[in-house]
């Protein structure tokens, strides 16, 4: 039994009792709060982060649905922001996993601490979260900090998530998970960690549409297609555009190369060890790194179901996957 008991022991316990709960397909407990499904184990750290995190104007918040390119985006933003501190061959990414370098609010910083002191982290601070847009701490909404979201085709996200959970065996039923049909059905009903996926994406997409200087909306598929232009875009958005000189020196290619799937996956630091409080293997963040792997696991009928879902949920918003 690998399930972590991070269950709330106080006011959250009471709140939890009042909320709808459901078992995920791998046996982790989910709770529904304000329209979203959260892992029970993440509920308390998330609410603490939401309540106590104080953003600085220079902060960058990486927001994602899990398995949508978080690791990649962490590596890229960290490298872009710190390129004057470390040359490529001195990068901390060569020695540790991107999740060590850019922590999650809920899985790391607020996991055990109600109000950790984050003041001394060098600026620009980069933090990550899987929280839906409306759940972000008030200071993030109110100050000059910037948010970078990365979305991914939900079919690939589902397949990636399924492999990740089966490999790490976090849930109680990890040895006897529900089959792919049932798991997919729950996914389409929005009953999955951080789900419904369409609400998650839509929230950030709308925020981006309303204020593109506050929220950058990236797609995993676009990074796969043309990493150079996306890295430039990220750097500009973060307020650290590449100079002509840097571009001539090949710095954009060097950063893209360091952060590429092949490069990161082959580092010793990413082949061994655990992360996110020992819950998951570092290596499990690097599986295939491909677009369209869903075709190896899901049927055209399943794809059609998601296509229709997205069509109705995203109608008129301009969001397409
Ligand atoms: P697959 O399971 O489809 O291979 P996250 O980082 O949000 O947890 O997402 C993990 C997914 O991103 C996995 O997808 C993983 O292989 C892929 N990934 C991790 N690092 C990557 C990189 N540097 N470039 C491209 N894809 C990467």
From TrEMBL:
Keyword entries, A-Z: Transferase
UniProt EC number: 2.8.2.-
Domain of life per record: Eukaryota
Pfam families according to UniProt: Sulfotransfer_1
Principal EC category: transferase
Residue ranges occupied by any Sulfotransferase domain in the UniProt entry: 57-318
GO molecular function: sulfotransferase activity
Gene3D superfamilies: P-loop containing nucleotide triphosphate hydrolases
Family: Belongs to the sulfotransferase 1 family.
Protein name: Sulfotransferase
Organism: Sesamum angolense
């Amino acid at each position: 039994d690998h399930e972590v008991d991070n269950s709330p022991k106080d006011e959250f316990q009471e709140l939890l009792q009042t909320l709808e709960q459901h078992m995920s397909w791998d046996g982790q407990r989910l709770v529904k709060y304000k329209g979203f499904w959260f892992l029970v184990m993440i509920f308390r750290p998330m609410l603490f982060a939401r309540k106590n995190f104080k953003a600085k104007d220079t902060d960058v918040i990486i927001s994602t649905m899990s398995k949508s390119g978080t690791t990649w985006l962490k590596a890229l933003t960290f490298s872009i922001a710190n390129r004057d501190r470390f040359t490529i061959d001195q990068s901390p990414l060569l020695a540790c996993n991107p999740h060590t370098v850019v922590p999650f609010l809920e899985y790391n910083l607020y996991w055990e601490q109600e109000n950790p002191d984050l003041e001394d982290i060098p600026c620009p601070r980069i933090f990550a979260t899987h929280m839906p847009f409306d759940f972000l701490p008030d200071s993030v909404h109110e100050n000059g900090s910037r948010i970078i979201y990365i979305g991914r085709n939900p079919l690939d996200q589902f397949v990636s998530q399924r492999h990740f959970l089966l490999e790490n065996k976090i849930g109680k039923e990890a040895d006897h998970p529900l089959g792919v049909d049932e798991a997919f059905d729950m996914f389409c009903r929005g009953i999955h960690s951080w789900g419904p996926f369409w609400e998650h994406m839509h929230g950030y997409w709308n925020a981006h549409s309303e204020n593109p200087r506050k929220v950058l909306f990236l797609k995993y598929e676009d990074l796969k297609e043309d990493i150079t232009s996306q890295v430039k875009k990220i750097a500009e958005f973060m307020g650290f555009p590449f100079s002509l000189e840097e571009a001539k020196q090949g710095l954009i290619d060097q950063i893209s190369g360091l952060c590429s799937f092949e490069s990161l996956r082959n580092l010793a630091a990413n082949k061994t060890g655990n992360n996110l409080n020992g819950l998951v293997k570092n290596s499990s963040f690097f599986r295939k790194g491909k677009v369209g792997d869903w075709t190896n696991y899901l049927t055209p009928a399943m794809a059609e179901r998601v296509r229709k879902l997205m069509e109705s949920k995203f109608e008129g918003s301009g969001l397409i996957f």
